[in-house]
Design goal:
The protein contains ten helices and four strands, in the order αββαααααββαααα. It is mainly α. The chain has a four-stranded mixed sheet with strand order 2-1-4-3.
Length: about 325
């Protein structure tokens, strides 16, 4: 009866109700080398241990029945055997033990399924936090930010970890308790929250590095552009090259890599500020310098565009003068 009351109190009305008990089994929750969250001891081992204990108890009770038959005198004729457990009918006694064993085993199997569900539905979805290697993750993020708008990638990733953190705090209150099992998840909860913080830091650091790298790209693009549009036009092919370059840049500036990169830089640092990441003085100086260089370059593009045909006319006059000089020199040589 005590075993039934402990493991399966609701299956028989013949067992008196007692005050609620503390869980029977304390389950340590661990993280294995593959990053899986699991019980330190398989839940099925608990199930087998209970089954073995029940079998041992049942065997003892059956042995006790043999002892009763061998040493106790039969009950008086006027006392029914069913009124004394020591003189219970053997068949009925065996049936009660069998029923109790079945109920206990069914109850613990149900409890194991409940705890299994907790691991599968509540803990396992957070395993990705543990399995993400910060170095590999940073490399993948940098590649993703090079292919997509960096601030958008950062915001998306940060939202993932903010949602995970809220879920961890809401779902893992420190323990998963059933009637028989107490799974202490407080240490796992703190580990998962730490992983969220680490991965958020990786995202922000990656965005910062991408922004600083893009500043260098902007400066190089500005330098390359200026080297073309400030070229002195000395020949017709120079004029054609500069004209094509300037017209394309002025008419379709968004296709120039410089301008979107500058926008990405400014958007990226605004995103970092949103997440309370402060820029260093050097970063602020580089931002301002790059922004000024881009602005100056745009002005020079417009100015060069306006003066292109004036430059063409000057080139044409120089070429005419050169041609005339050659003709004059040729006539003098002939004479």
């Amino acid at each position: 009866n005590d075993l039934v009351a402990l493991f399966a109190p609701s299956v028989t009305a013949s067992v008196p109700k007692k005050t609620p008990r503390s869980p029977v089994f304390l389950v340590d929750v661990v993280i294995d080398s593959a990053g899986r969250i699991k019980p330190a001891v398989s839940l099925h081992e608990y199930e087998e241990a209970v089954a073995q204990m029940v079998d041992a108890t049942a065997e003892s009770l059956m042995s006790l029945q043999d002892v009763e038959a061998a040493f106790l005198p039969p009950p008086p004729p006027d006392v029914p055997s069913s009124s004394n457990s020591l003189h219970a009918e053997p068949a009925r006694y065996s049936d009660e033990i069998s029923i109790a064993r079945t109920n206990i085993c069914a109850s613990i199997q149900q409890e194991v399924r409940m705890v299994d569900s907790f691991f599968v539905e509540t803990l396992m979805p957070f395993e990705f936090l543990i399995r993400r290697d910060p170095t590999d993750y940073a490399t993948a993020l940098a590649r993703k930010m090079s292919e997509h708008e960096p601030s958008g990638v950062c915001t998306e990733e940060m939202q993932l970890y903010e949602d995970a953190e809220r879920s961890i705090q809401a779902q893992l209150s420190g323990e998963c308790r059933t009637r028989l099992f107490d799974c202490n998840v407080s240490s796992i909860r703190e580990r998962l929250l730490d992983e969220c913080r680490v991965l958020r830091s990786v995202v922000l650091n990656c965005l910062r590095q991408v922004c600083n790298s893009n500043i260098a790209v902007v400066e190089q693009t500005v330098a390359d552009t200026l080297s073309v549009i400030t070229r002195e036009i000395e020949a017709p092919e120079h004029f054609r090259e500069v004209r094509e370059y300037v017209e394309k840049a002025v008419q379709d500036q968004e296709d120039r890599d410089c301008f979107p990169k500058m926008n990405e830089v400014m958007s990226g640092f605004r995103t970092l500020e949103h997440y309370s990441v402060e820029c260093t003085e050097e970063e602020l100086r580089c931002q301002w310098t790059a922004f000024k260089h881009v602005s100056d370059m745009k002005s020079q593009l417009v100015s060069r565009s306006r003066n292109l045909f004036t430059d063409r006319d000057r080139l044409q006059k120089r070429l005419e003068k050169r041609e005339q000089k050659l003709k004059t020199s040729g006539v003098e040589l002939l004479n």
